Amino acid sequence: MGVIVDFCKCLGLDDASLQRLANIAGKPVEDLKAVVKTPLVGEKNAEVIIRMHTLRINSTAEAVLDFIPIIGTIFGAGSSFFVTYRLLSDALDELTEDAQRVVKAAFGTD
Prior knowledge:
Number of strands: 0
Order of helices and strands: HHHHHH
Helix content: over 70%
Structural class: mainly alpha
Number of domains: 1
Oligomer: single chain
Strand content: under 5%
Distance between the termini: 29 Å
């Protein structure tokens, strides 16, 4: 979860960065926040991330393979890596799209 918070800061989607951008662009910060679509930005991002992670982890195959000692362990490690990779990759894609929308809203350009 800390990585996603860092993504938000690096992309200028945290509250302080949005406020600075709003001041520079001469627009209300609410207008910039309005174009942010992903629920990952803001105070409730921990809840959203946990919900996304839970949805991706729960699979029937994983539950069955947990009962097979060696194969279950190997599958679990690979599955955890893949789920974490997809979660972070999807989050970064969403946040990048939001950052582009914010810049467009602030300055009217891409």
